[in-house]
Amino acid sequence: MRKISIQDIAEELKLSKATVSLVLNGRGDEKRIRKETQEKIKNYAKLHNYRPNQFARGLSRGKSEMVGLIIPNISDNFYARIASRIEQKARLSGYTVVYSSSGENPDREKELIQTMLDRQIDGLIIASTQKNQEEIKRLKKMNFPFVLIDRHYPEIETNFVIVDNAGGVVSAVDQLVKQGRTRIGYVSLQSDLEAIHQRTEGYLQAMKKHGLPVESSFVQEVSPESYEVEMNQAIAHLVEAEPKVDGIVFATHYLTAAGLRSLKKRGLSVPADVAVVSYDQMNAFDLIEPPMTCVIQPVDEIGDRAVNILLDTMRKNETTKQLVLKTDFVVRKSCGG
Amino acid sequence: MRKISIQDIAEELKLSKATVSLVLNGRGDEKRIRKETQEKIKNYAKLHNYRPNQFARGLSRGKSEMVGLIIPNISDNFYARIASRIEQKARLSGYTVVYSSSGENPDREKELIQTMLDRQIDGLIIASTQKNQEEIKRLKKMNFPFVLIDRHYPEIETNFVIVDNAGGVVSAVDQLVKQGRTRIGYVSLQSDLEAIHQRTEGYLQAMKKHGLPVESSFVQEVSPESYEVEMNQAIAHLVEAEPKVDGIVFATHYLTAAGLRSLKKRGLSVPADVAVVSYDQMNAFDLIEPPMTCVIQPVDEIGDRAVNILLDTMRKNETTKQLVLKTDFVVRKSCGG
DNA sequence: ACTAATTGCTAAATCGGTTTAGCAATGGAG
DNA sequence: CTCCATTGCTAAACCGATTTAGCAATTAGT
What would you give as a GO molecular function for this chain, any one (chains A, B) (predicted)? Predict the structure, then answer.
């Protein structure tokens, strides 16, 4: 049961490689190969479990039927779910997805893009660190098909599928206001990510819209590296400086987690003392006490749209498509509702 | 800035493809190519950003420098973390990891294995559905390098890295006993997975060891498809039948989650009414009230060991390696401690 | 009966590398 | 001056497919 090549089949059946290849690629009729011959080839191939060597095929066709996916971190549930969806969706169109995590490291991201290009992938989906403009520009200049997801470079014209971050936070603030909260704080991340800035924008917009004051202590930022520790500081500012907040919006799910721990340590009760809404969710956010109110990102839609756009771009050279998806919202007890 | 091939370099520098290839693969000295010539080639290659075509290289070398990873579900945090670790570790040895989710579907798993073999991967790491003996046997017969992780086929002699499931549950029961609980229930999954059976074994062993009775209502099984619903039934049996349980061990993290919801619905308090220990963890298990006591699986070690074994197997044809890793344990409030 | 069209298939180039056997030129030893 | 070693490099086969131009044999058309 050794590996069998097209050559082997051709010799065995006393035909040429060309004929065999044509038939096995379904071009037998088009090339007017006799039905009988076609059957013979197909049967032999099936019987001996013929499998085309993808290297040879790729080399000669210049296509790999693979698309690359680069995300910051596969063990972040948000990206894992996107990855999972993209894989499923891409498979339906016959593509294999190759994915890798950049660990939020631009150099590594660059390296990964290069590795994937070396492997002759046909297209790329990237949730970029957003510190990799040069590489993205290069892809664009190469006219290589790609789609940015979750994060994009506003200054580069590319395909992208992102989420309406500002809108998501607005709905979070709206909900707190609806519950009668007026001194609403916001905890965010020190970050260059557009998405993070937009969330802050959303907070400020929403507060303005409701005519609520934004005290200087209301907006807190912690560093991505040591947010666990800094969160205690941040919470201290929010709940001690006068006026104390009666509601907090956290900019990411893990900030919410850290924030809750911090609130708990101080003996503050949610939502009685402070109502909480989280941007983005975590697996157990409906399990915790109180269950967490969340802005929900349309994970499946991000994946589906990204794949669709990529396939379009790969096939015809479509115009660039830029999508901003609306967030969803789940009200649970943490917001005081 | 077009794509440049070895051919191009050779022509430009009036050398042969062979020389260029040799030099760029670091075999210049060995083949006694003049330093000067080597420099010329390397410089030209760097300057024009030469990148070898991996298809061509793979075709001619018969190696792809890729390893495949097949897991049930990338959006399950347990597997995501393993995948992440494996990717990092494999990269250090110059391998790219291609991964795919089987969705617990044996047919799909088989398909994935085939696809990966077609793509000429050099080795494979599989967390199998355990309903795919034929395929695994086939790999073995082909003498293809692979390692099973998390789940293995006891009747097939293969490399594997699994966890001491029974031992993990024993430590869970031990902890509950230490907290003075004596009527300990166990909620598991209807499943053919060895890992799941072993956990049940562990429960029974531990109860026996402590001389505790296992009432018929103490062991509950729910189906993987509708465990959320059936959990209510299961919990009802555990807490209503006499004698009522005063402690429960859940066989997986998501069973724990569902169980907690169910207990909450009935107004039962953890750990006052029922102490709880979870086999395996979830992201927010330290956030919930009460924080969850967990059996911790050595995720990183699974990944590291699997890669090591795979690399060994790929290089020299080592003897089969079979590893059973010990679990860890985190005590938190849910067990009454 | 002669040309034209159709049928059925193949030869050979190509993709971009790797690798082995060996050639030509130079230097040194005897 | 001849012979052998060494240096520096190359020709050509090979990996396993795809694809195009076109040949030979048969059938159809007039």
Answer: DNA-binding transcription factor activity
